[in-house]
């Protein structure tokens, strides 16, 4: 069953927490991965790959650069999830 | 039809000796920062690289190879005359022909050993090792010298903040020879030419021939830039960590080795972040020693695996007889992974 927006944000928070050590409560829709959450470009790749597995979605390299905020990633997953 | 007598090779092959050469000049991040807007902290956090070696005019591709090879031959306990073939993997030998391998074979004192260069980027060591194993077992050479050598400082754009800090120079060599037991596992290798643009040379050499330099990239002072290696960092990282971890696992499976059986992991020293993520993805047990030579050697492409192997043995972090997984991956894209017994 497709994940809801709330479930996706919660899932991303767990992933970001595991990869970058950011507290889950800091991962909010309006937060920028790079500027607010200190997720660098290489960690972002790890976040994306983990999100692909968790939400059964493909996020090609060309699309990764457009995912600036947690909201961008959530919208992308909502739209593309299997 | 006449009957052709076949060649007679050894039952199996193994790595008998290893040697390395690192250029005298050690280049810290501070030197890199003279030309790019970055910081030591940024470079270390993205790559794990603190210093690298850059070759001087005397430390040519041939000279570094000869130094490393001499050590590998001595370590193998053979003489140069016994070397039947010399395989050199490099992308930074700037004379199109002849191959640098012939000069190396001659200066080492081999007895007219077969000698040739191969081009397989950062997978070059694994490609050379695979050829060498085949030659020893098939019987076309009893001992084969496999050299990975690079002067990547010559192919580095020092004004590109994404790559200026990555590359280093050096040579690593191994001697592959006959064995009664298998000590080099099956190679899992391949190419993905659809991703050729992911790591590439900025401009091909023949662009310089037309006389029209207006289409060539210029540096900050308006001079035409020498070709350099450029890459799409995120795409390379994703491929290296997640796709190459699968290849590494396939090489373990092909050799009948479980992670618990493994003593040492020697991935291509591309970037510490790639190495750390591969270790995590492969779920390697704590007891496995991981090569992290990139910190002080940088990315030396085809030379990185034998250089890292030599250092682990020299420092005692690994020992002769240990079982090691080696995997190289890079421009092509190409890759090669296998399990070996350390010399």
From TrEMBL, chain A:
The protein's PTM annotation reads: 4'-phosphopantetheine is transferred from CoA to a specific serine of apo-ACP by AcpS. This modification is essential for activity because fatty acids are bound in thioester linkage to the sulfhydryl of the prosthetic group.
Name the Pfam families on file.
PP-binding (PF00550)
The family database entries (PROSITE patterns) matched by this protein are listed as: CARRIER, EAL
Q: What family classification does the UniProt entry report for this protein?
A: Belongs to the acyl carrier protein (ACP) family.
Give every EAL domain span: 1-82
Q: Name one GO molecular function term.
A: acyl carrier activity
Q: What is its main location?
A: cytoplasm
Job description of the protein: Acyl carrier protein involved in meromycolate extension. Carrier of the growing fatty acid chain in fatty acid biosynthesis.
Any Gene Ontology CC annotation: membrane
Q: In which pathway does it act?
A: Lipid metabolism; fatty acid biosynthesis
Q: Does the keyword Lipid biosynthesis apply?
A: yes
Q: Where in the cell is it found?
A: Cytoplasm
Q: Does the keyword Phosphoprotein apply?
A: yes
Which keywords describe this protein according to UniProt? Cytoplasm, Fatty acid biosynthesis, Fatty acid metabolism, Lipid biosynthesis, Lipid metabolism, Phosphopantetheine, Phosphoprotein
**Protein's organism:** Streptomyces sp. R02
Its name, as the record gives it, is: Acyl carrier protein
Could you tell me which residues carry O-(pantetheine 4'-phosphoryl)serine? Answer: 41
What Gene Ontology terms for biological process does this UniProt record contain?
Answer: lipid A biosynthetic process
